[in-house]
Each structure stands twice: as structure tokens, then as C-alpha cells.
Amino acid sequence: MGKADFSPIADTTRRAEIVALLRRAILTGQLEPGQKLNELRIAEQMRVSRAPLREAMRELVQEGILTSIPYAGTFVIDVTAKDIDDAYSLNKVLDEFAIERTWPLRDQRFFNELDRRHEAVKQATRNLDTTRQIETALQLHGLIHEWADNSVLLETWQRLTSRLQMYFALHQRARDEPVPAEDAHEIYVQLLKGADMRAAQRHAREHIELDFEELLGYARSLEQRASKGAKADRAGLTQNRPEGG
């Protein structure tokens, strides 16, 4: 089970800072899928009261990377193969649509912003900063959704983003690498600047599919491990059960 150690936070009203620390702990694997959050221990380590911590946790529940179970507590979401399939299959459709809508709206501002976000990804990659690399990569991929001028598309993308953050982090752990290669988005960026919309859509789809297959294998291995653990727990309970009970 992952063990996260949190540093104190000076200003107890800084919910955003608590959210950022919790998110980083989840994305770096200090808090693992399915793990229960120990409110008391986290609050003591951060030196904050329980109220802003609970507000921060509620925000991450709304984002979809924590889940609150009545009378049981708050947990990091479990990640199943189906969860990943649901997210990535939707992501492929959204990207294709976003590229189509964005294509005629591209201008110099779009290209400048594309380059700026791409450079931010490369900088985070050079720094081997897993969390920052994931954040900047999603901001890079999010540009087409922001530029497409479709509010429902953007809302859907934003709801998907938190889950994708977690899945990207799991993918890096599956590869046992802090970050992907620095040139991972070179072709994507060049195609978005080009004249062939179909090629850009095809590359976006292939990029997602490659990540998806690797992550799916990792998720299935986690499910098998969890299943074996549950069987072992049940076996232990059976062995320890008093006779006649």
C-alpha cells in the first residue's frame, strides 16, 4: 500500500494548495488506486484543520479521482480495464471531433500557443517532473478542445481530464519511467500546423491507441493482483474463524 508523507502548509485557508498536494500524491503513486485517505494523519502532516482538507477532498471527488463512500470514508478511485476503455474510447472520438472543428479556426495565435504549450511539456520532461509533465501534456492536448468553439465539447474534455491525469501517471509507472521521451509530441504538433487534417486525426488516434494498449495490460495486472489479495484475505478469515462460528 502506498504511503504519502505530507509537508506542513503555512496558510490553513489554502484549499488549492491542499488540492495540489493530494493530486500530486495520487499522480506519483504515493496514494494508490483504491487506497483510503487517512484524514487525521494527512491533516496533522500538513498542519491544517480537517475543514479545508475535507473541502479539498470534496473538490477531488467532483473531479473524479477520489470517491466518497458513506460510512466508509474517502478513497482514491480504483482503476479497472473497463474504466480505461471507457475513457480512452471517448478521448479518441473527442479528439477527432475537436481537430475537425478547430481546423478552419487555426491562426497565428493558435500556432504560437501550440508551441508555448509544447515547450512547457518538454521543459517538464527535461526536469523529470512527472506531475508537471502530465499537467502540461494534457494542456497541450486540451488546446484543440479549447479552440474548437464548442462549449459542450470543452466541458466534456474538462471532466475527462482528471481521470486522464491519473491514467497517464499509471502509464508512466507501468513503463517504470518518470516521464515519456522529450520528442513524444513532435509529430502531433507538426501535423496540427500542417495542411492534412485527416493525417492529424489519424496520428491523434494512433497516439491514444498506443498508450491505451500498454495501460490496459497494466490495469489487468493490477486487477489480478487485487483479486489474489482478496482471495488471500478471505482464506485468512476462514482459517482464523472460530470453530462453530
Give a description of the structure:
The chain has 245 residues and is mainly α. The chain folds into two domains: 62 residues, Winged helix-like DNA-binding domain superfamily/Winged helix DNA-binding domain (Arc Repressor Mutant, subunit A, Orthogonal Bundle), CATH 1.10.10; 142 residues, Four Helix Bundle (Hemerythrin (Met), subunit A) (Up-down Bundle). The protein contains nine helices and two strands; from the N terminus they run αααββαααααα. A two-stranded antiparallel ribbon has the order 1-2. Helix 4 crosses helix 6 and helix 4 packs across helix 7. It is globular. The mean pLDDT is 88.
Here the CATH topology of the largest domain equals: Four Helix Bundle (Hemerythrin (Met), subunit A)
Our measurement of the CA-to-CA distance between the termini, rounded to an integer number of angstroms, reads 31 Å
Order of helices and strands: HHHEEHHHHHH
In one word, what is the shape? Answer: globular
- Regarding CATH, which class of the largest domain? Mainly Alpha
List its salient traits.
mainly alpha, two-stranded antiparallel ribbon, 245 residues, Arc Repressor Mutant, subunit A, 9 helices, Four Helix Bundle (Hemerythrin (Met), subunit A)
List the helices and strands and how they pair.
Blueprint (H helix, E strand, L loop, with lengths): L14 H13 L11 H8 L3 H14 L2 E4 L3 E4 L4 H22 L5 H19 L3 H18 L3 H25 L10 H8 L3 H44 L5
Antiparallel strand pairs: 1-2
